[in-house]
Design goal:
CATH superfamily of the largest domain: P-loop containing nucleotide triphosphate hydrolases
Order of helices and strands: HHHEHEHEHEHEHEHEHHHH
Number of strands: 7
Number of helices: 13
CATH class of the largest domain: Alpha Beta
Strand order of the largest sheet: 3-2-4-1-5-6-7
Largest sheet: 7 strands, parallel
Shape: globular
Number of domains: 2
Distance between the termini: 36 Å
Bound molecules: guanosine-5'-diphosphate, magnesium ion
Amino acid sequence: MHSLAERIQKQDMRALARAITLIENDDEEKLALMSDIFSIQKQAHYVGITGSPGAGKSSLINQLLTYLRKQDLTVAVIAVDPTSPFSGGALLGDRTRMNQHFMDPGIFIRSMATRGSLGGLARATKDSIRVCDAYGFDVVLVETVGVGQSELDIMKVVDTTGLVMTPNSGDVLQIFKAGIMEIADLFIINKADLPGVRKLISTLKEYMMIVQPEGWEPPIVQTVSTKAEGMPDLWKRIKDHQSYLYQTDKGAERRKQQLQLEVYDLIREEIWREVKTEMEKDHKKMEIFQNPDADPYQLARSWFQEWARKDE
Ligand SMILES: Nc1nc2c(ncn2[C@@H]2O[C@H](COP(=O)(O)OP(=O)(O)O)[C@@H](O)[C@H]2O)c(=O)[nH]1
Ligand SMILES: [Mg+2]
């Protein structure tokens, strides 16, 4: 077994941090490490917290952490914020807000760095969640800004997704358009101390009347993260969803689908990398891009076919 995997299994937090760095850097050792990580028995519940910047996700997670620690549950937090790749401001903010937990061995907090593509970030996040799981945390919380496909991809690895919305922010339409409503297992109205809560609730109820969710109807939870209000209810709803997933086999189904998507994605990436490397070696082939009128379909097909025949 990879020495880091072994140490992670023994709950060595430094090894956990080191493993995530390997994952972030897409280090050569990553594959060996991950295959050992996959072999470790896991049991964490993965909870994604998504929503627009400023909705209060970090504040909420901070309060939920405090609440969960009081229930004697151990928690890992993975914060992903691709909207601020270089400033680090958001991360710093998150750190200060979550700072009170830094000395607690039952808590691990990590901000994912944005290196390379967003797709790469999504993959790194998923693997980091798994490493936290192998460590033995009861709950893995993932904070992500719900803005694009990659963020939706990240949410595809979690069991329960809470969508954080705020009254009067007017972001419901945007969230709806981005396809984020559909992945919500839970609607969290944070900043419920502000006016407009009833209006938002009726908008959400209208939405549910239209889509008529089958099986699980996403409950609406109200929270005030600045005052730690609503945490018991929030956690209860998350647990309800967990029971639902377990009792209906929807959880296993979800994880199977996620696995399939992930494997497809990896294959797509691998083939693309190989075709690209192979074709770029040939300068003549690259010259074709000098002609802007070339037929892209035909070119793509011929490249792929040539690559596929290569080893025959
Ligand atoms: N009034 C009010 N403000 C909140 C609440 N939760 C968070 N905030 C504030 O909203 C701002 C953004 O919070 P943050 O947790 O950084 O949002 P994030 O970008 O979604 O992680 C901060 O100034 C928080 O103090 C709440 O329940 N009520
Ligand atoms: Mg945040």
